[in-house]
Design goal:
The complex is a heterodimer. By secondary structure, chain A is α/β, with parallel strands linked by helices. Helix content of chain A is about 35%, strand content about 15%. Chain B has 10 helices and 15 strands. The chains are: A alpha/beta, B alpha/beta.
Chain lengths: ~450, ~280
Amino acid sequence: MAEKIGRVPVREQDPKVRAHNFEEVCYGYDEKEALLESSRCLHCRNPRCVEHCPVGIRIPEFIAHVRAGEFGEAARVIARDSSLPAVCGRVCPQETQCEGSCILGVKGEPVAIGKLERFVADWSRAQGGVAVEKAPANGKKVAIVGSGPSGLACASDLAKLGYDVTIFEVLHKAGGVLQYGIPEFRLPKERVVEPEIDSVRALGVKIETNVVVGRTVTVDDLLDREGFSAVFVGSGAGLPRFMGIPGESLNGVFSANEFLTRSNLMKAYDPESDTPIFVGRHVAVVGGGNVAMDAARTALRLGSEVSIVYRRTEKELPARAEEVHHAREEGIDFQMLTNPVEILGDEKGWVRALRCIRMELGEPDASGRRSPVPVPGSEFEIPADAVIMALGTSPNPLIASTTKGLETERHGCIVADEAGATSRPGVFAGGDAVTGAATVILAMGAGRRAAKAIDEYLRS
Amino acid sequence: MYKITRKEMLTPSICLMDVEAPRLAASAQPGQFLIVRAREEGERIPLTVCDFDRSRGVVTIVTQIIGASSRMICALEEGDSFTDVVGPLGRPSDFVDEPDEALRGRRFLFVAGGLGTAPVYPQAKYLHERGAKVDVVVGAKTADLLILREQMTAVCDHLYICTDDGSEGHHGLVTEKVKELLAEGVVYDQVVAIGPMIMMKFVALTLKDSGIPLVVSLNTLMVDGTGMCGCCRITVGGKVRFACVEGPEFDGYAVDFDEALRRQTMYRPQEQEADHKCKIGRN
């Protein structure tokens, strides 16, 4: 009977309503829906979903517990491999990972692994969370730079192994991109992110906020003066890129990082917050990734009309399929095969329009994607009083430039091997700081591998 | 954490505070800044590090009431705490990297406008302690608004005061005093101007044919102050730079001040609204 049921749909907030609020879009499964969806798993002998999960969650095992109604057991299975399941259940690109490899997806729809993970995590959190086994303290101190996904994952694994772990965070709140980058309507902060970080603290991990590693202390200080035996650098990719086109310094041009940090970390959408945010009448968002979708949907909720400008076609949009779908439902305008060439200003230096050129897809480039080429003479203007650049981010050079002997490559990414070892003994790195901007779950995977490598390094 | 151990109103609208921040006090250098939040819902407000005492673990900050957030900061009292204090941010002044012998005898002119006196103080102090010759021109609207006068006098060779209303010292602009000093034949190896953007622009214009290197410290808008948001971007020598991580100090002759002045007004309507405590229609 299992294979006869289609994927259980998930309840969501009405697009017309949610376009005006910051409440979570997706409600997630209830018990009944989770039980039903879990019955669809075929329990493959060689589960491809596990192979395609960057942190290797034992997916069929936790789903079996869900099916048996043993939600607490399911949470314990997940907790062995992930410290942020409520986050990952919400923001992972499941369609290219676990669900993308689910055998049911060949002919029909894959098991909703992400939604089941989210259900288990939310259920478990409501019951007070999972008690995780911890090795006795071994007296060795490890410092982690950055409290984003890679740092939290690395810290959790090391704490479970008995290390005394301190995370140093530059911002006033822990969580990295989970706090400043991903909006409330996709990842609630008080209800999901903060309890999940508290669960890392509950393992004994200390988090010191407001510390700029590279300025307040250096990696060398941590190793030489503060008694840390190893350092993991998970400082992310926080440096926003701009296009380098004329008009980018006009008033009304923002990086997605600025716009989202104001709204997410500083809560500018909330009238109680003191931080201002610019609400345009018509906002053009340049880019096609998750950050572009987040910026566009945030601007929409603040009351702007929004167009997304992307130089390839919808098929190439790097954002999660669910985000694109949600953005469309909410009324975001998509200008595909369109590339900005100049931002035009009024006489006072404020944005008045985005001048663009239409593109067409040419020959495949090195990445195998057909590269967009401009259509001559096709320039046109999109009227806009704000432009948000969501073109990706690079690692912040501060740590590399203040740490002796730490090698970087030309984009500023720290050079590290598969296990996270850098050119400097005792210094490990992972996540976006090494790869450039990627996903929460890949960063977590890198954090876990580095934790293993740090443990081996400190034992030898 | 971040307890205010001393508060002094320097003028009715400018307050000085000593704040406990041991890590910051241990690592701060002249030229750098910090960011504070006065309360949980508070903005991140960049302020210059006016002084630091490494042994006591405190930093000194000076705040002028110009809007809702600075009003909130100045309303905190001795014994209260900031929700957050982070830093030091930005690069230290270039002279911090030079050996002390190289600074001995070198002649510096500082031009400080209003609250700019606060960041000038640690620089003048650093140089004075190392045997450099330090002259300081301080400008204020009126004599009552002059700050840190005794402290500054103790760390410089000459202190020249200018007031817009002539209530003390030179009656007129700091640029006039600077011109006068140069005309008298005083030879400076370097000028450092810190104050309102418009003052720094005119110091640069005044000195542009002098051949004297000019450093300015830019007080742009910022959110995180760590290179993440790009809100502080400015054009220096035709290149886009982030004041928070690549500055705050830049070559005064290369800065596009008109753009910087325009960008400072980005949130003015919202700020004015906030100051009137009205949060309706935040647009």
